[in-house]
Amino acid sequence: MTVNTAASETRYTTLADQLPSFISSTLLQCKRLPSLPAAALRVLNVARTADATCSDYAKAIEHDPALTARVMSVANSVHYLRTAQPSHTCFDATQRLGLDVTLATVLSFCLFEDDHDAHSRARFWQRAITAAAAASYLAKQLCPHQSGSIFTTALLQDIGILALQKAYPADADLLYADDRSSHQHIIQVEKRYFGCDHTLVGAWLMAKWGAHDELINAIYHSHGSLETDDMAAVCLRMSGPIADAWLSANPSQALADVLRQWRTLPTFNNWAVDGLLAHLQQTLPPLSNALGLSAPCGVDSLALLQNAQQLLFEHTLSLSARLDAQYKARETLLNDYAKLEQRSRIDPLTKLANRAWLEEQLRERFHLCLTTKRTMSVVFIDLDHFKVLNDQYGHQAGDRVLTHFGKTLTSLIRSGDVAGRYGGEEFLVILPDEDADSAKCFAERITRRLQERPMARVDQKPVYVSVSIGVACLNDGGFGNEQELIDAADQSMYFTKRSGRGGVSVYGH
């Protein structure tokens, strides 16, 4: 789908660049991703307008006969047909359903029609409509002029989860199988597993559809901090935890935990929890019915609030301390796991990527370039006379040289480049989307930097090193795999060595 404006196209490109390469490649190739027809995008733009009317919604919907039929069908269902006269026009149907139910019906029909049988997706959609109803209620208290657009944003804030479920069905079923997992825990797991979380994927998907920037940005930041002066953002970010508590197997305990975390917020006293829960109790059954979902088990909002407040009162300081200790222990375990995973990819001396991670990255990027008709270059670097340096100054000095050279490479590469230690005194840099000329310029910056700065000091005397560099670009040879590309750069590096060392050679030039 082509985005609507230059600004939208720039936003899409920016978000696409933030996605890990294997994620963007899979998403772009996935034929099962949810998509929005033009009529649904028009409805989203109507929802963005603060003073949108039923007539505005009806006009946007009527462009799509199937969408119109769906809205009419819901409006004329047993749940909504309270009179003997069915709705005969889209305007009548929209008026009968109300704006929020109309919007939810439109998006359900376009995005989720085939997903209600799967437990994880039914759970996803139940959370979406619960969060939307909660966000809309809060907005009417804190920022009334934005309540319509906030309902939309809350409804779509986790659309990235659906995209990941479509692109990685087996993996996603494991990641999202536990209904008890908090969204913060889900985000941590997503970042470890995918290298990004569903808010980035959701924002990217909305930009791909051509949605307006306010909706894209709101989804991207939907799980941010509540400590902000942006009341619309506060309403959106509160809606998810409220939905999780409402749908929890133990809603009283879950709500008590939410209230305990929020009671110090300056906005906390500005909205009534009992009114919010009563609103959910009244609103969710017709929404669930309209979308063909089984409604959550009936919740008595008054009893829920009383039980939650009682549990909140019973939380002693010692219990809070124990909970905090448990959270810290879990964070420690997660951090330890992340560090172990990081160590498996990093060379301990230079802090650059190790050979195994380099080769894995190059393999992925090589195949991505072949499928997307992009290019890349590799730069193979060998420190000159390194054995002589070790013999003359000792291995500790040699290690200091390698460490300092690793820091030098890190300072010269861009975001998206990958630099690593290939073995001994050999290094490899992967430069995505760079041709041979720009890769050569990068290599020459390395040689100049080494001429300007020593890599170690021995007895207060500076130790300068030179390097022999070989460059190979994917455009300059019929390379069958990534190893042939490395071999070409390696051959060019040896040509530099035979030509006197301390320079740069480019394969095929």
TrEMBL record:
PROSITE patterns: GGDEF, HDOD
A single MF term (Gene Ontology): diguanylate cyclase activity
Catalytic activity: 2 GTP = 3',3'-c-di-GMP + 2 diphosphate
Residue ranges constituting the HDOD domain according to the UniProt record: 33-225
UniProt-listed InterPro entries: Diguanylate_Cyclase, GGDEF_dom, HDOD, Nucleotide_cyclase, Rev_trsase/Diguanyl_cyclase
UniProt EC number: 2.7.7.65
GGDEF domain ranges (all copies): 374-509
Domain of life: Bacteria
EC class of the enzyme, as a word: transferase
Pfam families for this protein: GGDEF (PF00990), HDOD (PF08668)
Keywords of the record: Nucleotidyltransferase, Transferase
Protein name in the entry: diguanylate cyclase
Species of origin: Vreelandella lionensis
